[in-house]
Amino acid sequence: MNSSLLALKTALDGYQRYEHSDPPCAAYFRTIITALIGQADKPDIWAIREQLINEDERRIRQAPLLSYISEDINVDLSCLGRQEIRVLRLVAEGNKPARIAEILQVSPHTVYNHKMNIGRKLGLGSAADLAKFAIENLPSR
Q1: Where are the beta strands (DSSP E) in 28-84?
Q2: Distance between the two ends of the chain, CA-based, in angstroms?
Q3: Do 29 and 11 meet the contact criterion of CB atoms below 8 Å apart?
Q4: Of 6, 49, 53, 134, which residue is the least packed, with the fewest Cβ within 10 Å?
């Protein structure tokens, strides 16, 4: 998620958290939201969150594959397909299979197959090994 989207998400979280319990604090978050998306009488938090999720998913699907791969990986990932690298990246970010399926717009069974193929191609024995490999070898965005 780029810095503007992350700032908006953080401001929405703060606004929603303090809207009723600490209105002056919520007002600061509201100022940030206004600066990022423009003036709104009462922002529809859930609609904005939905747009953020959709935009983040769109960016993940369109991200160049080179940005997924760290230059200091000691393992050759050229054996993996484009979608397998995307799955590996989403695993590294901590996404569950159902969420990965949503983001990539495939079935959970397809995600399972990709994870199995990645594990086989990289010589990883379990889903935990795959997650550990992904976290250690793919840079965070």
Answers
A1: none
A2: 7
A3: yes
A4: 6
